Amino acid sequence: MRAIIPVAGIGSRLRPHTYTLPKVLLSVAGKPIIAHIIDKVVSEGITEATIVVGHMGEMIREYISVTYPHLPVEYVEQEDHLGLGHAIYISSHTITSEPILIILGDTIFDVDLHSVLKGQYSALGVKEVEDPRRFGVAELTDGYISRLVEKPENPVSHLAVVGLYYIKNTALLVSTLREVVDKNIRTKDEYQLTDALQLMLERGEKMKTFMVEGWYDCGKPETLLSTNRALLEKHPSSRKIESVVLVDPVFVSPTAKLSNCVIGPYTTVGNNAVICESVVRNSIISESARVERALLENSIVGNGSVVRGSYKRINVGGSSEIDFY
After folding, report:
1. Angle at which helices 33-43 and 57-67 cross, to 10°
2. Domain ranges of the chain
3. 40, 141, 199, 248: which is deepest, by most CB within 10 A?
4. 237 phi and psi angles, rounded to 5 deg
5. 234 by DSSP, 3-state: which?
6. Is domain 236-323 annotated with CATH 2.160.10.10?
7. Bridge partner list, 306
8. Separation between Cα atoms, residue 65 and residue 96, nearest integer Å
9. Considering the entire predicted model, what is its pTM?
10. CATH number of 2-217
11. How far apart are CA 158 and CA 315, in angstroms?
12. What pLDDT does 238 receive?
């Protein structure tokens, strides 16, 4: 089975970090977002992938080729940001008659997909949310999806479609995506996958839903930190480091260098990071970053950045240097 993973977004809500690094390569709970996604789909028996790249796509290609050398991957370039439907449409040459799993590249999921992938019908992952207006929404009748609406102004359902799509009838999906593009059917000025799925329903395709409680958004600094916190709680560390107090749950890379500091709770320290004479909690210290004589909380320090000084709350992109005096 093939997974299609669109990761072409520029990640504007995660700037300044995404000026120097694609969003899906930002670290959370010890590894990049894309690694959480690929590890999950591989564990569910997915044997090949299509990855839709755009912004700094060469960095994504390099990371995946090094980290997953045995996973067959086809890359598709999405030069224009015309929506999720467009991303899947331009990937249609990689789709065969076999079922596919579409999984969004800015969200980490913790859900058992075994029964979904063995199911008789297409199925969409959903979660009940208070305000579904920024999502696609599924309306149900007798246990099947009767209607899908993208970002409704007045939603009648609170079942938000959260970015996991198991599609059995791939030929019909490709056909409806082509219709959406050919007829220039746009919602919020983009070609939406939801609109193509709605056309599938209108042509008699049966679809079900499955609940996704473990749904972790990585789209903004605050949600990236909350996702880091939730994932660390699932896998607390038991490491001990001389002259360092670790307050679980934390993740500290084996290649990080720590001295005379307190780390945690809810803190990730990436590869080759250096922290000394500091207190860091509820934060992400990325690869090759350096933190000296600082008290950091609710902070993200990007790859290769340097922070020296006193207590602050910061959001520092990659390849930066900040001194507090």
Report:
1. 50
2. 2-217, 236-323
3. 199
4. -85, 155
5. helix
6. yes
7. 290, 321
8. 23
9. 0.86
10. 3.90.550.10
11. 33
12. 66
